[in-house]
What we know:
Largest interface: A-B, 28 and 26 residues
CATH superfamily of the largest domain in chain A: FAD/NAD(P)-binding domain
Helix content of chain B: 55-70%
Helix content of chain A: 25-40%
Distance between the termini of chain B: 55 Å
Oligomer: heterodimer
Shape of chain B: elongated
Amino acid sequence: MEKKIGVYICKGCSIADTVDIAKLEECATKEMKVPVCRSHDAMCSPEGLNLIKNDLAGEEINAVLVAACSPRAKTKEFKFPGVLLERANLREFVAWTQEPNTEDTQALAEDYIRIGVTKTIHAELPDPFKLEELDKSVLVIGGGVTGMTSALGAADAGYNVLLVEKNEALGGWAKKLHRQLPQSYPFEALEKVGIEATIAKVDAHDKIKVFTSSEIEKIAGVPGMYDVTIKNAAGSQQAKAGSVVLAAGWKPYDADKLTHLGYGTSDKIITNIQMEERAKSGNIGAKKVAFIQCAGSRDANHLPYCSSMCCLTSLKQAAYVRESNPDAMAYIIYRDMRTPGQYELFYKKMQDDPGVMLTKGDVVEVREAANGNVEIVIKDTFLGEHIVLEADLVVLATGMVPNTKVEDGKVAQWKEKFDEALKASGGKPDPNAVIEQEKVPNLLNLEYKQGPELPGLEEAYGFADSNYICFQYETQRTGIYAAGSIRQPMHMLGSMEDAMGASLKAIQCIEATAEGHGVHPRAWDYTYPVVNLQKCTSCKRCTEECPFGAIEEDAKGTPFHKMSRCRRCGTCLGSCPERVISFSDFSIHQMSSMFKAMDVPDEGLRIIALVCENDAYPALDAAAFKREKISSAIRFIPVRCLGNLNLAWIADALSRGIDGMILLGCKFGENYQCHFVKGSLLANERLGKLQETLGRLMLEPERVRLEQLSIQDYDKLPTILADYIEEMEEMEPNPFKEF
Amino acid sequence: MAEQVIKPDLDFVKGVMASGGESLKKCYQCATCSVVCNVTPDDHPFPRKEMVWAQWGLKEKFVGNPDVWLCHQCNDCTAYCPRGAQPGEVLGAIRKQGIKEYAAVSFLSDLVGDKSKVALLFAIPAILVALVISMAGNWAPEGDVIFSKFMPIITIQMLFTPALLFGVVVAFLGVKKFWTDMKQANGVSSGDLKGSIIAALTEIVSHKKFQTCDVSKDRYISHGLVFFSFVALFITTAIGAVYIDVLHMESPFYLGYGTPVKILGNAGAIAIIAGVVLMMSNRLKNEATLGKGSYFDWMLLSLILTIGLSGLLAELTRVAGIGTMAYPIYFIHLVSVLALFLYLPYSKLAHMFYRTAAISFIKYSGRDSQSPEVAAAVSAVATGEPAEEEQTKTEQSS
Lengths: 739, 398
């Protein structure tokens, strides 16, 4: 079908006060030769929208370019189902950031029309990718409070659930508790542990199939169609699932390592887990109980993080002590009391008890007292000097270690083996070969090129955390969602909330896969990467760079996408040296055509900025909202991720006479902010070959700059851009301008 | 650093909580109280340390501690406390414990401090006065209303002078013990006792500490009114005693309303009522921010108000010649004054002794004079930065 593009220019929000609309219309119709171009005082108004809808209805056009505000604004208004839509940002990038009615400003606006029309010309509506077969079951790994809550959540929503528990019985840690913290307002009184009721509900639910004493032997396949092998004493069983909730929980920190707090030297020094057992047995057997908080937590030698539940557990156990005997006292020695959320109320309640005494302080020594009790020496209290406190029971409040945590030293061992393998194989190592053998932590056993388990983030301390800013529950494996204390240390109430969140994400993933669109963060996106295999050289760069393990290779080394694992980031598009990967609305060729469409005069600076649409683009919009002035030499073009950067673009742009390119992306690093793990980092690595690319053109590599920024850096953006422009102005103009 | 063994005493915690410090445990030791307090010394701040000690039941920490007595109960700490721990109220409760600890005859301490024993508390002086009247006076005198017919002056002296002496002696013994404890606890062996007491009294009379109260500014006025009317009434009574007992003259109170003695006495009576009413209304008005006060506080306020009102009403009804009202009111007046004297070392009024002692002690021990480092730091904070800002502003404007 012949594409008939309509360009709709909005005059509102000071656009018409900044540029000559008639000239823009002329640019669209005469130069870009679109059949329809209209303008309106407020294109987002019902009258403005009717202009577009009438043209669509009359079949005068079948693709729309709205030249108005940022594509991030008015998304509800500018929505035409089944019609290709592009946006040109005349408000933020022109009207709000440029000097009104100058030649440069007009040229900029006209370039955005050219770029927009070209982009539309080279885009097509997608034909969604759908799995031939789909299973909508949710696989939940872990039968503790998180796993069971998650299973019930998904099952109550109508989805079949496979619940796999390693132990003989469901219940997890909750089953070992004497009492549980209050679960609802006013968060004051301890409650009987409610886990038995949950277990009964799970057992009775006809949509939940429970596998106890079972482990996951293998997970193969893709979201929407996982082939799960469940192993137990009876042997291996096959099952299918659409998505996975990983709720395999935690274990307490090894108290044997807490010798500095006297653990192991006296039976009067126990852990909070042992205290729970004592309370459950009905005999605490002590009248002066001291709780030492952060026992091996927030400590560089042990667990560097806060487990967020130990303070609450000690307060709870202080209540056990007080209930056991009205004359009994509970001393709590803390570094900071941390009682997340509404549990501040419980803290207050326990504080009011005259027999619960709290002090800030650091424990210097735990030693035996003359009378056989234990003496604790504490410094930095508000009681003045080093204080000595005698107790007949000391409870060490130990923290949580996620079951995903790989033991210290293991990683180094793997690295060693990896390096050996690298040498032996002469540079073509398979890092997963080593990890496969280890089977640690042996939770998922994924059949993924990237290895059997979730990749750990350096700053996540072994927790299955992906990115705490934007992606709760998300992991770097699409369709697998982590919940509860395996994701982050948390208390039971938090785990239950987490469980529901994760099961909703799991359901969303199944439905997105069924519909053929992406999951978070591109949940609206029906496009997907298509490889022109005829030109593929099997270099495997895309399979290595895909952050989500979505690209595998066949026996001949030819890549193929496991599409429902794909998050549509386009990192593969950027990685491909042969430029054979494209999306229906986004391709190497499309971008190059957009650069070519720009007007490059012989005189005057021209810069292209490729902007990450997740962070840098909103930052630009924010700067525009603040009416910051930005150089009229720069043309901002959004990309899905800076990982889209293909060196071909730089060569194309600079050989067209563009003076330079600035790439605005996310900050590097493991504790990443990048929505697609490491897009800007990959872009930066690709720039390592820039010298080679630009050397051929006899151009300086300084013309291309990558800037890392986060969304809140909008205030720094104008300076970053101005500095770059200043440097570019000092450089000779691009000699290709004259060609 | 030296190690210090602490011995948490649960009963002490419960005791403080039961005597008006029920909010004690709410403290989470942030120190807002010590920061907002304008009375606290810069290098020995209270009341946070006292709050922590009390939460942990460290009773021995309060033995010989002058700091709780340096507090003037402005309650700025209570107003700003983010946790509702009401340090002002808690310190009041701790002082009450101190009064109880130091006063001899602990039975009377319990009586004064216990709400449930209020009937017995007033029955004792009432029975004493009634006994004397029954023996030496006249329950319903005929003719002009003359109070000495109701209860002869000599019998008043025989009852009230020993009562006051008892109170003063008990208070003196308590203060003496307190002083010894303070010396021991703070490792102070010698100093200028006379000079310190004079300096302390000068400070007390000036009421300058009350002027620094932030939230309850009226406290300066109300305490001043009550304080000076007590002084005025003491002088008036003393003059009376001198006329009658030393000079063996007619009571000066019969000389007429224009005489200085009479004016001072009446002014004192009116001022004491005004002062107490102001204190009470402030308490009620600021209950939400400053706390409602304990039974111990209200007992003293009510007693003083009763004394003031009954005294004034007795005088008015006497002048009006309404004997049926004047004598019963006068009876109430006598009972309440006797209660004040008897319970002097046990009631909140004992603060006049202990606070004076504490203020004297910090002067005696030299702690009142700031160390040069602290003085420098304080002045830097108080004046340094704003002064610079001011300078910059001036420069900019010029």
